[in-house]
Write a structure and sequence with these properties.
This protein has helices at 2-29, 45-85, 98-148, 152-182, 192-209, 228-245, 290-303, and strands at 189-191, 214-218, 223-225, 250-257, 260-266, 307-312, 317-323. Residues 1-5, 40-44 and 286-291 have low confidence and may be disordered. The protein is built from 7 helices and 7 strands; from the N terminus they run H-H-H-H-E-H-E-E-H-E-E-H-E-E. A 5-stranded mixed sheet has the order 2-4-5-7-6, covered by helices on one side. Strands 1-3 form a two-stranded antiparallel sheet. The chain is an alpha+beta fold. The chain is elongated.
């Protein structure tokens, strides 16, 4: 690159120098040179050569400086690529050369997009791990209960519930994959009663093992705008949180409030400490795994056009707001 730029610059300098010399001859003699009249070409030879040499050397110097600057900028771009690959986020180069700055901006955009994709993949892995762990645990408990009984009616009932749990697991995986590939989609209508009834059956063994129970109350026949899987994941997170950190009966109350449906999940536990309460939905919060679940639950609520709040810290009350479906 440097050699090419120098070669072009030298050629341009020679042409420029010759043109300047001819112009000097014309100006110095006061008339245009004539080919068959050597007298018209009489100029001080030394002056011509000197002018040409100065023009060439000056042009070479300028070209060399330009080539050196361009070579330095290309080396800088190479170093910036290495730093971008290592996760560095340098500020724009602002070299003053449009092509170089455009290339630098493209490199930074590419690095930022790559970082976002990597973060998205990490979030997906964490979300999938969290959302699959709880249903798998509940399914294992159900299978263990089937294994310990000789009552065929109990076996049939528990097997039916276990099959439903497996189907829900499959839907959870499909939903996570869809969100990762395509982002949020239009929210269909879902019966709140059906989702709550399914979750109550699914969580009954776990709460019974802890000598606790889940009580569902409130208005019936409510239909909300959300996917069944997303709504199930949100409420599953709240039930899991209550089972791990709460006490007493878990109350799930649903009611209509204007254009919204409010679903409140509460228990008789100590609740959330004042220092943790403002950050309870942050992914960075580490609370034996609960932080990730609540963060994901909030994201799912927002994707459905609703919101999830900590309505009361102690005793804890989580409130899920979703839009009423008119269809």
């Amino acid at each position: 690159m440097r050699r090419i730029v120098l070669g072009v610059a030298v050629q341009a300098a020679v042409i420029t120098g010759l043109s300047v010399t001819v112009a000097a001859v014309v100006i110095g003699t006061g008339h245009v040179p004539v080919a068959d009249d050597p007298a018209t070409w009489v100029v001080p030879g030394v002056a011509v050569v000197a002018a040409l040499a100065v023009a060439v050397l000056g042009s070479v110097y300028v070209a060399d400086r330009s080539a050196s600057r361009l070579s330095t900028l290309l080396g800088t771009l190479h170093q910036r690529v290495d730093r971008l690959n290592q996760g560095d986020r340098p500020v724009p180069l602002h070299s003053g050369i449009t092509e170089v700055d455009t290339l630098d901006a493209a490199l930074i955009r590419g690095a930022q997009q790559g970082a976002k994709r990597l973060a998205s993949e990490r979030d997906f892995a964490a979300d999938a791990s969290h959302q699959l762990r709880t249903p798998l645990t509940a399914l294992l408990m159900r299978l263990e209960e089937i294994n310990l009984t000789d009552d065929l009616e109990v076996v049939a009932e528990e097997s039916t519930i276990a099959i439903g749990q497996v189907e829900r697991l499959s839907k959870v995986v499909d939903d996570l994959m869809t969100r990762t590939r395509h982002g949020a989609e239009a929210n269909p209508s879902v019966s709140l009663d059906s989702v709550l009834a399914s979750l109550q059956r699914e969580w009954q063994p776990a709460f019974a093992g802890a000598r606790r129970s889940v009580k569902v109350s409130g208005e019936r026949g409510l239909v909300v705008k959300a996917t069944p899987v997303a709504l199930g994941q949100i409420l599953t997170t709240l039930l899991e949180n209550s089972l791990a950190y709460g006490r007493g009966t878990v109350e799930v109350n649903a009611r209509r409030a204007g254009p919204s449906v409010v679903i409140e999940v509460s228990d008789a536990g100590d609740g959330v400490s004042p220092t943790l309460a403002p950050h309870i939905f942050e992914r960075s919060v580490s609370s034996s795994g609960s932080g990730l679940g609540l963060s994901l639950a909030r994201d799912l609520a927002e994707a459905a056009g609703g919101r999830l709040e900590l309505a009361r810290a102690a005793p804890p009350v989580f409130a899920l707001f979703l839009s009423v479906s008119q269809g």
